[in-house]
Amino acid sequence: MRFSVKRLLAFSFISCLGSLVFGVSTHAETLPSPNDPLFPQQWDLRQIHAQEAWAVTTGTHSVTVAMIDSGVDFQHPDLAGIRVEDGWNFITNTSDTTPMVGPDQDDDAMSHGTIMTSLLAAQGNNGIGMAGMAWNINVMPLVVLDMNGAGSVDHITAAIRYAVNHGAEIINISLVGFEPDDDMDRAIKEAADAGVLVVAAAGNTSGWKDGLDLDQQPMYPACSLAGSSAILTVSATDPLDQKAPYANFGRTCVGISAPGHEMLGAHPFHGAARDASSTQYIAGVTGTSAAVPLVSGTAALIKSIRPDWGPAQIRARLMVTADPIDPVQKSDVRYKLGSGRLNAGRALQGLVAPRVSQGDGIQKLGLAAFSLLSRFHIFLPSL
User: Fold this and answer.
1) Which residues make beta-bridge pairs with 150?
2) CATH number of domain containing 331
3) What is the pTM of this model?
4) Between 352 and 369, the higher pLDDT residue
5) Could you report the per-residue pLDDT of 39-49, keeping only the tens digit for each?
6) DSSP for 296-344?
7) Of 252, 247, 261, 194, which Cα lies nearest the Cα of 224?
8) How far is CA 259 from CA 126, 139, 380, in A?
9) What is the number of structural domains in the chain?
């Protein structure tokens, strides 16, 4: 089975434990407000109460999120400070995880991994550009999509296993396909058994329709092991907390929703694109792909405070603390957007690190979709 950006994937357009210490008060005047110049435009972070979450932690370098996607430009000024774990390029079978470029490249596909990584972990409070959800975590880039956005399910499955074997705690998968695959399901189950949470996109419908009902037309890995605690599938919402018009939905497959409409992201400079006129950021980032890193990042923040929690506990925490949004949905999608819209502030509220007796260690419990970025707006800020 092949995963293709153009045909199968979805993405459209029209603290005490962190390195930065904030107080724990949730009063607006004392909430951490990063000095990144584009932060005021990041409505998605305000919608999910990211500042309340950052008052607890901005992440730790003991937590790694694997980004299964296209290549990532870690030379981008907003990504240069990320601690990068050794990744792998499953397309070229090399350790080169930079964006794949060439004369026939699809810029939308080439830039996807960088955009997703910026939403996850762009360095906050560094006076540059935007802020990601989790500023002080590690990122493991795993390339499964080529410069045209195509990749195989075998590569995705291998990337999941690589992430588990190389110490990732969270796996971000912002892509989907239509056909199930038993080996990919096994890899996701193996990840859960190893204490790793997989967060995946619900996918978008091409043609800018109202999204697919995944109960009627499943997509994968969104619907892999549906209903189990091994995977958390994410749909997308707009600033009014309504389902984004293209986002897929489903009572069985979708576990939670998060903002994924008209957002900001970092654009790669890599290769031929790196010159004085290169775009630093794009606006209009839209899709369930973009919703996934917000959930993965919040999961990483939870893991930073509770390293003893496994995927089932982190998944449950994210879901039970979500804001209910069913009352504002159309009747055909009501109760099909998971437990609600992500509330990162509530998910982190009240969490405390586990007590560890002297001499004891903390044991780890063994407990997206990207259609073509067909329309987007280039954003050239004055920094």
Assistant:
1) 4
2) 3.40.50.200
3) 0.86
4) 352
5) 999 999 999 99
6) HHHHHHHHHH-TT--HHHHHHHHHHTSBP-GGGS-TTTTT-BTB-B--H
7) 252
8) 24, 21, 23
9) 1
